[in-house]
Amino acid sequence: MITPTSMVPVVYYALLNIALIIPWLVFTVFTHKWNEEAKKIYACIYVAVQFLFIAVSLVLMYA
């Protein structure tokens, strides 16, 4: 059953994704200087943060 409390991680996850996409948008749309090296580094950070958030959410849900 979906309760307001069970929706909290979903809201955080959405906000986190928005916060992670903003720098990418700024770099690509406004500067056009988003080279391959920067893309790889950013992709690694993005994936790492995603996994970290999922792990923390699972720990909090089942703790």
Distance between the amino and carboxyl termini: 19 Å
| Count of all domains | 1
Poorly predicted regions are none
How many strands appear in the DSSP assignment? 0
Secondary-structure-derived class: mainly alpha
Largest sheet: none
Task: State the helix count.
Answer: 2
CA radius of gyration is 15 Å
In terms of DSSP E residues, the strand content is under 5%
Q: pLDDT average, as an integer? A: 74
Principal-axes geometry comes out as elongated
Which sequence of SSEs, written as H and E, runs from N to C? HH
Percent range of helical residues: over 70%
Give an overview in words.
The chain has 63 residues and is mainly alpha-helical. It has one domain. Helices cover 87% and strands 0% of the residues. Helix 1 runs antiparallel to helix 2.
Summarize the SSE layout with pairings.
Elements: H1 4-31, H2 36-62
Helix pairs in contact: 1-2
Keywords: Membrane, Transmembrane, Transmembrane helix
Transmembrane segments: 12-30, 42-62
Keywords:
63 residues, mainly alpha, 2 helices, 87% helix, elongated, membrane
